[in-house]
């Protein structure tokens, strides 16, 4: 799908504007020149008199309230599930379309879960609510979609390496503090009692489900199926937090209906918008979070045949979890919705 700038000026709001995703949305609206009539920044009442810079101005951050969405056409939500659930109705009543970054609505059958390069056509129906997928899942499905189209997917097994910014601003502060203190001794315990982020690798993101998987792992399973439109696709995942500030990576193993080699895989990825092939191991060129952070494309490489199974392929992806994993994907959805609206009127 080609990306075109939203055709007419919009009145927008960001709920959770002060968080990591909210601030990235703000930066990207500016970077992409998203046409805006007005922009309202909303957060909690935690701190008074906050302002954030935008297009040479200093915009006030307002506490969210029942009238906060009056006149708003596009509401970008970057809050936890309970806050998104609390305010989505108010935004709808005010006539806004909501693009939500939390997982509160992702598994409702009537709510589209969208990666515009893959299933952006669902936005032509002009839904009032669109769910933005999980940050690791977005990068993984971006690399899977062209393989699926060319060779058919039969099974997907994933292990993620997820940065600490994926857990929000407080967690990132904990990592940074832990790294400083950990240089001279043990990194301190985390506020929630979990193992320290610093100098550690933690196979636990979100809560544990009854089946022994974490919810983060099940998000990858459920969301990969929903976005690719393959409800029966066997998917298994292990989601791991690593002491990286920004940028999620994943090792992905697939079984395809037709065997394809690394050359063909790279050719398919090169044709797919939003992907960048980085695959020259002899020159130490492969996807890494530091190279993905601050950039839009999902990096894909380390492609190789999996000799342990027929039609198996193994590869590695890295992407900026705050950009394509959240803010960028949400803004691409807003741009596509705006375009679909203009086409419908
Ligand atoms: N971080 C990622 O890489 C990533 C990727 C994909 C999806 N997501 C999802 O995006 C959402 C935001 O994540 P984040 O990492 O940006 O979190 P964050 O850094 O912790 O930011 C949370 C935001 O929510 C606001 N907030 C908290 N309580 C509120 C309340 N009662 N009313 C209104 N606003 C409130 C905070 O405002 P105050 O400053 O006033 O507290 C802040 O702006 C989460 O659902 C997360 O799962 C995150």
From TrEMBL:
<dbReference type="GO" id="GO:0051287">
    <property type="term" value="F:NAD binding"/>
</dbReference>
<keyword id="KW-0486">Methionine biosynthesis</keyword>
<dbReference type="Pfam" id="PF01118">
    <property type="entry name" value="Semialdhyde_dh"/>
</dbReference>
<dbReference type="GO" id="GO:0009089">
    <property type="term" value="P:lysine biosynthetic process via diaminopimelate"/>
</dbReference>
<feature type="active site" description="Proton acceptor">
    <location>
        <position position="248"/>
    </location>
</feature>
<feature type="binding site">
    <location>
        <begin position="18"/>
        <end position="21"/>
    </location>
    <ligand>
        <name>NADP(+)</name>
    </ligand>
</feature>
<feature type="binding site">
    <location>
        <position position="162"/>
    </location>
    <ligand>
        <name>substrate</name>
    </ligand>
</feature>
<comment type="function">
    <text>Catalyzes the NADPH-dependent formation of L-aspartate-semialdehyde (L-ASA) by the reductive dephosphorylation of L-aspartyl-4-phosphate.</text>
</comment>
<comment type="pathway">
    <text>Amino-acid biosynthesis; L-lysine biosynthesis via DAP pathway; (S)-tetrahydrodipicolinate from L-aspartate: step 2/4.</text>
</comment>
<protein>
    <recommendedName>
        <fullName>Aspartate-semialdehyde dehydrogenase</fullName>
        <ecNumber>1.2.1.11</ecNumber>
    </recommendedName>
</protein>
<feature type="active site" description="Acyl-thioester intermediate">
    <location>
        <position position="135"/>
    </location>
</feature>
<comment type="subunit">
    <text>Homodimer.</text>
</comment>
<keyword id="KW-0791">Threonine biosynthesis</keyword>
<keyword id="KW-0457">Lysine biosynthesis</keyword>
<feature type="domain" description="Semialdehyde dehydrogenase NAD-binding">
    <location>
        <begin position="11"/>
        <end position="126"/>
    </location>
</feature>
<dbReference type="GO" id="GO:0004073">
    <property type="term" value="F:aspartate-semialdehyde dehydrogenase activity"/>
</dbReference>
<feature type="binding site">
    <location>
        <position position="321"/>
    </location>
    <ligand>
        <name>NADP(+)</name>
    </ligand>
</feature>
<dbReference type="Pfam" id="PF02774">
    <property type="entry name" value="Semialdhyde_dhC"/>
</dbReference>
<feature type="binding site">
    <location>
        <position position="106"/>
    </location>
    <ligand>
        <name>phosphate</name>
    </ligand>
</feature>
<dbReference type="GO" id="GO:0009088">
    <property type="term" value="P:threonine biosynthetic process"/>
</dbReference>
<dbReference type="GO" id="GO:0046983">
    <property type="term" value="F:protein dimerization activity"/>
</dbReference>
<feature type="binding site">
    <location>
        <position position="241"/>
    </location>
    <ligand>
        <name>substrate</name>
    </ligand>
</feature>
<keyword id="KW-0028">Amino-acid biosynthesis</keyword>
<comment type="similarity">
    <text>Belongs to the aspartate-semialdehyde dehydrogenase family.</text>
</comment>
<dbReference type="GO" id="GO:0019877">
    <property type="term" value="P:diaminopimelate biosynthetic process"/>
</dbReference>
<dbReference type="GO" id="GO:0009097">
    <property type="term" value="P:isoleucine biosynthetic process"/>
</dbReference>
<keyword id="KW-0560">Oxidoreductase</keyword>
<dbReference type="InterPro" id="IPR012080">
    <property type="entry name" value="Asp_semialdehyde_DH"/>
</dbReference>
<dbReference type="InterPro" id="IPR000534">
    <property type="entry name" value="Semialdehyde_DH_NAD-bd"/>
</dbReference>
<dbReference type="GO" id="GO:0050661">
    <property type="term" value="F:NADP binding"/>
</dbReference>
<keyword id="KW-0521">NADP</keyword>
<keyword id="KW-0220">Diaminopimelate biosynthesis</keyword>
<dbReference type="InterPro" id="IPR036291">
    <property type="entry name" value="NAD(P)-bd_dom_sf"/>
</dbReference>
<comment type="pathway">
    <text>Amino-acid biosynthesis; L-threonine biosynthesis; L-threonine from L-aspartate: step 2/5.</text>
</comment>
<dbReference type="GO" id="GO:0071266">
    <property type="term" value="P:'de novo' L-methionine biosynthetic process"/>
</dbReference>
<dbReference type="InterPro" id="IPR005986">
    <property type="entry name" value="Asp_semialdehyde_DH_beta"/>
</dbReference>
<dbReference type="InterPro" id="IPR012280">
    <property type="entry name" value="Semialdhyde_DH_dimer_dom"/>
</dbReference>
<feature type="binding site">
    <location>
        <begin position="165"/>
        <end position="166"/>
    </location>
    <ligand>
        <name>NADP(+)</name>
    </ligand>
</feature>
């Amino acid at each position: 799908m080609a990306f075109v700038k939203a055709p007419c000026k919009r009145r927008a709001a960001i709920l959770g504007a002060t968080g990591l995703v909210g601030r990235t949305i703000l930066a990207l609206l500016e970077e992409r020149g998203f046409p805006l009539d007005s922009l309202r920044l909303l957060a909690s009442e935690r701190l008074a008199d906050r302002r954030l810079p935008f297009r040479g101005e200093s915009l006030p951050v307002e506490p969210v309230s029942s009238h906060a969405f009056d006149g708003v056409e596009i509401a970008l939500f970057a809050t936890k599930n309970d806050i998104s659930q609390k305010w989505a109705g108010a935004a709808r009543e005010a006539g806004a379309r909501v693009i939500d970054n939390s997982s509160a609505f992702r598994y409702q059958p009537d709510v589209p879960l969208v990666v515009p390069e893959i299933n952006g056509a669902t936005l032509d129906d002009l839904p009032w609510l669109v769910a933005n997928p999980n940050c690791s899942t977005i990068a993984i499905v971006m690399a899977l979609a062209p393989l699926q189209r060319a060779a058919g997917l039969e099974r997907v097994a994933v292990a993620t390496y997820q940065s600490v910014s994926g857990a929000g601003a407080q967690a990132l502060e904990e990592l940074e503090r832990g790294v400083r203190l950990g240089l001279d001794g043990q990194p301190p315990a985390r506020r929630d009692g979990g193992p320290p982020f610093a100098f550690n690798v933690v196979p636990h993101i979100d809560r544990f489900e009854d089946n022994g998987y974490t919810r983060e792992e099940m998000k990858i399973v459920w969301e990969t199926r929903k976005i690719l439109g393959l409800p029966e696709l066997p998917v298994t995942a292990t989601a791991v937090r690593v002491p990286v500030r920004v940028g999620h990576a994943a090792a992905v193993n697939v079984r395809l209906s037709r065997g394809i080699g690394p050359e063909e895989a790279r050719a398919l990825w090169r044709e797919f918008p939003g992907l960048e092939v980085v695959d020259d191991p002899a020159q130490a060129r492969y996807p890494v979070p530091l190279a993905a952070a601050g950039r839009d494309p999902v990096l894909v490489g380390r492609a190789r045949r999996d000799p342990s199974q027929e039609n198996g392929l193994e590869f590695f992806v890295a992407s900026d979890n705050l950009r394509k994993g959240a803010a960028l994907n949400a803004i691409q959805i807003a741009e596509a919705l705006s375009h679909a609206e203009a086409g419908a009127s």
